[in-house]
Amino acid sequence: MITVHLRYEIDPEKLADFEEYGRRWVRLVDRFGGSHHGYFLPSEGDSDIAYALFSFESLAAYERYRTDSATDPECQEAFELARTTGCIRRYERRFLRPLDGGR
């Protein structure tokens, strides 16, 4: 299993747009065979940092998702939402593996 950890720097004035972006990707990742663990939004502390976690059974499955999502119309709409609203300033992606296979 591979888990993707995303750290977003967001525009706090556009939190509603980012929430919509997140709702779309939870559904899309699940549709592409992944397991989305959710988006985690600012509460206390930094107002411009958010996180997301989702997993695929393997790095190969994740790569298939990346390839397929690049041409999927719904995925392109989600990317366009972020681009046109400017709700995401930047993001970082990390790949993690669970200890003992996640048991």
From TrEMBL:
One Pfam entry name: NIPSNAP
InterPro entries referenced in this protein's UniProt entry, alphabetically: Dimeric_a/b-barrel (IPR011008), NIPSNAP (IPR012577)
Limits of the NIPSNAP domain: 7-99
Name of the protein this chain belongs to: NIPSNAP family protein
UniProt organism field: Streptomyces nitrosporeus
Organismal lineage: Bacteria, Bacillati, Actinomycetota, Actinomycetes, Kitasatosporales
